[in-house]
Amino acid sequence: MTFDDLAGAPYNLDAYDIQWVREILAGLSEDDRLSQLFNLVLFGNDPVEIDRIMRFRPGSITRFGGADAETERALVARLNAALPVPLLVSADLEGSRLSLADAAEMPNPLGLAALDDVQATEEVSRIMAQEARAAGINWSFTPVLDINAVFRSPIVATRGFGSDVATIERHAIRQMEVFQRHGVASAVKHWPGEGFDDRDQHLVTTINPLDLKSWEDSFGRLYRRAIDAGVLSVMSAHIAFPAFVRSLVDDAGQEAFRPASINRLLNEELLRKRLGFNGVIVSDATPMAGLGSWSKRSEHLPEIIASGCDVILFSDDWEADVAYLKAALADGRLTAARIEAALIRQLGLKAALGLHKQQAVPTVDRAGNAAFAQSVAHRIPTLVKDVRDTLPLKLQQHRRILVFSGDIVIPFLRQPLQFALPEMLRQEGFEVTVHAPDSDLDARDFDLVLYLLGDETLLTRGRVFLDWLKLTGSFGEAMRRHWHEVPTAMISFGYPYLLYDAPQVPTYINAYSTTETMQRAVVDALLGRVAWNRNNPVDPFCGLDDARF
Length: 549
Description:
Blueprint (H helix, E strand, L loop, with lengths): L14 H13 L2 H6 L2 E6 L3 H10 L3 E5 L4 H14 L5 E4 L17 H7 L2 H17 L4 E2 L24 H17 L3 E7 L14 E2 L4 H17 L4 E4 L2 E2 L1 H7 L15 H11 L5 E4 L5 H4 L4 H10 L5 E2 L4 H14 L4 H17 L13 H12 L4 E5 L8 H4 L1 E10 L11 H7 L3 E4 L13 E8 L12 H5 L2 H4 L9 E5 L14 E4 L5 H11 L23
Parallel strand pairs: 1-2, 1-10, 2-3, 3-4, 4-5, 5-7, 6-8, 7-9, 12-13, 12-14, 14-15, 15-16
Antiparallel strand pairs: 11-16
């Protein structure tokens, strides 16, 4: 990697921009060169953490739990004033519960795939980018290019654009293009491709099991398309691709299962040389067990950079991590030339985003954005089946409703959130009772049984399934199925495959997202005010013929 390479794709820098990269790099101390390799997570606005960032002087940060846009911008400005290089400020712009604070509640990727309206995806992406830039964010670890191929995958599900490669290509590439057009660099993920392993790389190194031809026809197609469209970065994940390693290394043994994040063959040979990607490669989060289960941190941390990544994502102990890099430099496992190449790419990305120049703050129409979010949400809830014609609900026929609620499960929060939907129905005149574990209610005393599930399959879930015991609160109730005596509907506001655990439920709806905007859209559809979507972006029947009836 040379400075001259920055004139080409995906950076496309002019002479002034390249000179800025040269001058900044030349002015970095040896310690700064190492700290610039890190992206540190910054939760909230803790002064201790902010001071830590300033002392460490990283090249980028990731924001979680931010405040309103004005406060966020002020924080970023304060950090940039104290640091030697403008920060890349990253987030996961995936919509739904990963929306920014004070931002419109946009659908997640699976909801957009269900709608399958590229113009809607474009406008959602424009609004998300606009709101992100207004909050000081300039880098998103999205869109997801993973393929929802196996229904038990807990990590893809609602985060990806479904199971059809052409649908993923239409929507993910458009989102990437819109993000970057509006000043937010995209990092497509998870290289070299997730969705054919039903495990979660937060917990274990997952495996892409495809042969080379199948990979080229699916993930190869998607990543080549993203590269051709000018994507600025790729996230290299803790995913192995044994078929490619074995094609180059006879008797590869365990090395065939080395995660991409520390796999030079996958990053340098496949992604850079064969696919022609010259942008920034960022590792997936380094505290994840998909990396930690492979080797100890003192070994794999230097390997991240040595194997082709340009950014190390997250550090719980930056003093120790820098010491690991210095030790690797001393014994030759890591070279100064490789670090310099990584920094040239990082600085090139910053110049491509114009971070070295004065930038205008986007004007955000919050009322208009919220209105659009509501309008697009009303087109997404998918009626998978209603074999007994229970819908639409009628007050005179379904007045007394018994709700079994699985609550809204968010891995970032210690306690689940409560659904707003029961109160929404009460406001419509229905008498809604939420089942409690210690209650002795008889479902036959009600006119409708409604199951509400809120698992959006985000991070460290291991498995997502319909936990009947937790849902109902008792051994006996877990085995009862009320739909033979009482009209019954099940609504998943996340994981779209719950029919696997309840194939005979007569009415089943996928809504994909747990936001209150989506809950309101479902209520309006339940009452017949808007039409149901009938497009399934995945197979909600999980290959079970009986689930259709």
